[in-house]
Amino acid sequence: MEHNRIPRNFNRIKAKILIETSANKPGEIFHVYPKIGGYTGLNTATGLYYHIFPSMLRNKAITEIIEVI
After folding, report:
1. What H or E segment, with its residue span, contains residue 58?
2. What spatial distance separates the first Cα and last Cα of the chain, rounded to whole Å?
3. Partners of 63 in the beta sheet?
């Protein structure tokens, strides 16, 4: 099974979350930023920030990476 590739250095990842979580509904867009100790994601629909796990970003069944900047 292929996984989403997370580059070592990036400023932002634009990603669509495909499943419902406590932070989003399916299809909502997150802007993910690298932070010390992990990743922080901004839910563009609600304006709220959440901790994002690398395993969640790598899993194609959960996350569709749209753009890496």
Report:
1. helix 54-58
2. 25
3. 17
Q: Which tokens in the block code for residue 33?
A: 């930023």
Asked whether 32 and 12 are in contact (CB, 8 A), the reply is yes
What are the E-state strand segments in the chain? 13-17, 29-35, 38-43, 49-52, 63-68
CA pair distance 17, 26, nearest whole angstrom:
6
Q: pLDDT by residue (tens digit) across 11-33?
A: 999 999 999 999 999 999 999 99
pTM value is 0.92
User: Cβ-count burial of 15 within 10 angstroms (0-12 exposed, 13-18 middle, 19+ buried)?
Assistant: buried
